[in-house]
Please model this.
Amino acid sequence: MKTILSFLIQIFLLTNLLSQTIESTITNVQYGAEYFPFNENVQLIFDSNVGETSKIVEIKDTLFRVTNISSKFVYTQSFMRRNDDIYLVRTDQNISTFLYSTEINITYSHPVLQLPLPLKIGDKWNWTGYQVKNNDTTSISITGEALGVEVVETPAGKFETIKIKLFFDEVDGEKTTLYQWLAPNLGAVKTKVIIEGSGILQFAMSLLGYDEIDSELKEINYLK
Model:
């Protein structure tokens, strides 16, 4: 009996040690710019609850314009690289339905830290400043966190990803939570956006019934 008990204790200790070793290895791995690429030669097609969307990249001077297009909206973010870090400098949205349409243009008091690179699981970052949304200035804070490593299966295939969470907290009450699953050389292959509050964007998305938007990569098109 003592022999069996001793054996079980050894198995438990070995399993615990192995688990700690694996966890330590994962948290110490560094993830670089390949997880947030700007590739003009690739078009990504997504399935989502807002219909099919396509994502393209345009490089203009020092800016990288990433545009997501569906039949109901066009959403463009302009990024810049500073060292290896990724910064957001402008957001443009055009939402249109048979009942309602609006254009929203957002600039920031200084570049928004979107993704500090290289990144390790467990890393957290934050940004505080002002945004100018259609000539209205409000304060905003943004927090980010690298949550973990996940294997996700999409219509385009299976990918090993790092899961990122961004939380946008505006002083006027609008709050947006963005989850991204980033795969090497492709960027986000799966996203979830949750919009709360009473701002312009919330009103427009509520009309569409899209307070929560989920999308998964469906197709990869190589343009050149």
Observations:
- Helices lie at 2-28, 200-208.
- Residues 108 and 131 are 4 Å apart (CA to CA).
- The longest helix spans residues 2-28.
- Confidence is low (pLDDT under 50) at residues 17-25.
